[in-house]
Amino acid sequence: MHPCTSAQTSTxxxxxxxxxxxxxxxxxxxxxPTVTQAQxxxxxxxxxxxxxxxxxxxxxxxxxxxPKMEAHVSDNPTVLLSxxxxxxxxxxxxxxxxxxx
Length: 101
Prior knowledge:
Blueprint: H1 19-31, H2 37-45, H3 56-64, H4 66-75, H5 91-100
C-alpha cells in the first residue's frame, strides 16, 4: 500500500525523438530566432497532429548538437528515413552495400 500524497502525477509521456524530428525542430528554431526555448517547447507540445514532447533542458542539449546533427544528415542523406542509423562493421559488407545502393 502506498502512502497518501498530494503530489500530482504527470500525464505526459516522453518519447524518443528521431533525427528527423530534431531536424524539424532545428528548422523551426532557425526560422524563428527570437522565440525563447520555453516557447519552442510549448509550440511543439501543443501541435494538434504530430506533437513532439521534450523539455527545455533536452532542447538546450540538442541545440548544442545542432551543427553535428546537420553535418551527419549532409554526410548521410538517407539517415532521415530510419529511426536508427545502421553501422556496418564488416568492410566486405560495406563494400557490397556501396555497390548495391
